[in-house]
Specification:
Number of helices of chain A: 17
Strand order of the largest sheet of chain A: 1-2
Strand order of the largest sheet of chain B: 1-9-8
Distance between the termini of chain B: 57 Å
Order of helices and strands of chain A: HHEHHHHHHHEHHHHHHHH
Oligomer: heterodimer
Shape of chain B: elongated
Structural class of chain A: mainly alpha
Distance between the termini of chain A: 23 Å
Number of strands of chain B: 9
Helix content of chain B: 25-40%
Order of helices and strands of chain B: HHEEEHHEEEEEE
Chain lengths: ~425, ~180
């Protein structure tokens, strides 16, 4: 049993000698070294975990009022809106929370893309993040089905039907997912169960994501590793405070939509109860799926023995799957786009391509939007399989700073004694 | 938690400003968190459609002397017993008996013939037996709770067992001679 405990409070010491929770917290947050040059783009991980907690908490409260049965689901959501105390607030927080989650996570992802946060030694950190994204998408989809509106029903039909594109066993899988011959009560029932389960799996993945981050430490806008204590500040209080500032602004943004534009991100058709005999003429997925939806619809011709249907599904899933291998597709040794003049340009083209695909996803797949979608899809994949590998060879990076401190002090060495000494003390 | 080394060398004139900012931010954070938790908790309280006023009318006409009926009011069983003269006499005689929750029969029944009670044992909420002719009525001829053995007399007063108080009388009023409104 350790007797050299740093804790003076006898209760804390007693607990800590048996379960070193306080030592762990102290080590991972009080003393955890963060690069001192992080900008506000490094807030979005904390924001994402806050949204996850908000979603779980409001979701559990909503589950106390919701009925996962086709005859009651739609009405039970309306009852939440009308009769349950603050039910409208819980529902709007949860509903807009989904959009907030994706806004925050997409910024988080593009931050990683810009500053090369997926490169060695952070590949596994990145891959865990991609797994989180996939699970988030699945969770959001399952949740969208629950109110049993028109979009719920037809979204559920379309997304589950994607599996029917798989040769030979596709139809069998679809029947298995549905629990019947069409999307019906059995489907709604199991989607409710899984929508409750998934966030806790997400918690597990987020835990691993954080552990991986704490092993490799945070990347930073310069993309050079920390050389020593002069390059870092402890997580607490410096980044707890900075995260709190970001959280404040983010919650104002979130609250604006909840209170003043709660249906801004939603589709009006989901206020019509599900009708298995009529697909609404304007069926559009939630905005955060639009780029992937555009890719799915862009494939209109068969490729040899692969049908257009199957190819669309492959490319749509491939659009996220390719992120898993991104660390090995980007051959450049330089992390941050700050020191990669061509990549910096290419990054914005890629971002614009994603935004364009999102826009295309909201249009009817005809004429100009269809062509834009096809060009956008080709470029999306070309960015990963052609542009990034080639850039690593042909690009001449700008000179990298020798340390995180250098751009400020003009030299890579120690910073004025007082500050450095103070950092080393704890 | 370990002391924060940075706070040690703060200038004196800055300290007040910083303390103010920290306090103000923490207070706002606490108020914000509380105002998020409040609706979460409130959502578990009875919703509007449950709160919608619940009253129940009972027609006493068909109830014979010595008979009892159970009706539902706000999800709870309500006992209505048309007592026999003997039962009324026993109840009045026992007014002076040693009881855990002393009450006279007159306080409990507006018209002695009609006893109206909420049929939930005051111990842990089971429904006492004694409504049906075949039910055990307990040692005092009223009701007997099978869960933990509480005995109630012909006025629904607790006489033996762990229950702390008499069976409560719900608010009710006579609409006509033979019709009451509970609630």
């Amino acid at each position: 049993m350790s007797t050299d405990s740093q804790w003076k409070n006898p209760v804390i010491r007693w607990v800590d000698d048996r379960l070193p929770i306080f030592t762990y917290l102290d080590h991972e947050y009080q003393q955890f070294p963060m690069p001192k040059n992080l900008n506000y783009f490094w807030n979005f991980g904390a924001l994402a975990s806050i949204v996850l907690v908000v979603m779980v908490v409001t979701g559990i409260m909503l589950a106390m009022q919701y009925t996962p049965h086709v005859d009651y689901a739609f009405d039970s959501v309306e009852r939440i809106m009308r009769d349950v105390n603050y039910g409208w607030l819980l529902r709007y927080i949860h509903m807009n929370g989904g959009s907030m989650f994706f806004i925050v996570v997409y910024i988080h992802i593009f931050r990683g893309l810009y500053y090369g946060s997926y490169k060695a030694p952070r590949e596994l950190l990145w891959m865990l993040g991609v797994a989180i994204l996939l699970l988030m998408m699945a969770t959001a989809f399952l949740g969208y089905v629950l109110p049993w509106g028109q979009m719920s029903y037809w979204g559920a039909t379309v997304i589950t039907k994607m599996f029917s594109a798989i040769p030979f066993i596709g139809d069998w899988i679809v029947t298995l997912l549905w629990g019947g011959f069409s999307v019906d009560n059995a489907t709604l029932n199991r989607f409710f169960s899984l929508h409750y389960l998934m966030p806790f799996v997400l918690f597990g993945l987020v835990g691993m994501h954080v552990v991986a981050l704490h092993v490799t430490k945070s990347n930073n806008p310069d993309g050079v590793e920390m050389n020593g204590p002069q390059d870092s500040v402890p997580f607490h209080p410096y980044f707890t405070a900075k995260d709190a500032v970001g959280t404040g602004f983010f919650l104002i943004f979130f609250a604006y939509f909840v209170f003043f534009a709660p249906n801004f991100f939603g589709e009006a058709d989901n206020y019509i109860e599900a009708n298995p005999l009529q697909t609404p003429p304007h069926i559009v997925p939630e905005w955060y799926f639009l780029p992937f939806y555009a890719i799915l619809r862009s494939v209109t011709v068969d490729f040899w023995f692969i049908s257009a249907k199957l190819m669309g599904v492959i490319l749509m899933f491939g659009a996220t799957m390719i992120l898993f291998v991104l660390p090995w597709l980007d051959t450049s040794k330089v992390r941050s786009a700050r020191y990669r003049p061509i990549y910096k340009f290419v990054f914005w083209i890629f971002l614009a391509d994603c935004v364009m695909l999102g826009w295309v996803g909201g249009q009817l797949p005809e004429g100009i939007p269809l062509i834009m979608g096809q060009v956008g899809t080709v470029y999306y994949f070309a960015h990963f399989v052609i542009v990034l590998p080639v850039l690593g060879w042909i690009e001449k990076p700008l000179p990298l700073p020798t340390s995180i401190s250098e751009p400020v002090t003009g030299g890579g060495g120690a910073v004025p004694g007082a500050t450095a000494a103070k950092m080393e003390k704890p | 938690m370990a002391d924060n080394p940075a706070s040690a060398d703060t200038d004196d004139e800055d300290a007040g400003r910083r303390d103010f900012l920290v306090l103000a931010a923490t207070a706002m954070g606490a108020i914000g968190a509380a105002s998020f938790v409040w609706p979460l908790i409130q959502s578990m309280n009875p919703s509007a459609e449950v709160l919608a006023l619940s009253t129940t009318e009972v027609d006493l006409e068909p109830i014979e002397s010595g008979q009892a009926i159970t009706i539902v009011w706000q999800g709870k069983p309500v006992f209505v017993r048309r007592r026999t003269a003997a039962e009324i006499a026993t109840a009045k005689k026992d007014d002076s008996a040693d009881m855990r929750d002393p009450q006279t029969d007159a306080e409990r029944a507006e018209k002695p013939e009609w006893l109206v009670l909420i049929g939930l044992c005051t111990h842990l909420g089971c429904i006492p037996l004694g409504q049906k002719a075949t039910d055990p009525k307990g040692e005092y001829g009223g009701w007997f709770c099978p869960c933990h053995g509480s005995h109630y007399d012909t006025s629904g007063r607790i006489r033996r067992g762990p229950a702390p108080t008499n069976l409560p009388v719900p608010p009710y009023a006579y609409l006509e001679d033979n019709k009451i409104l509970i609630g």
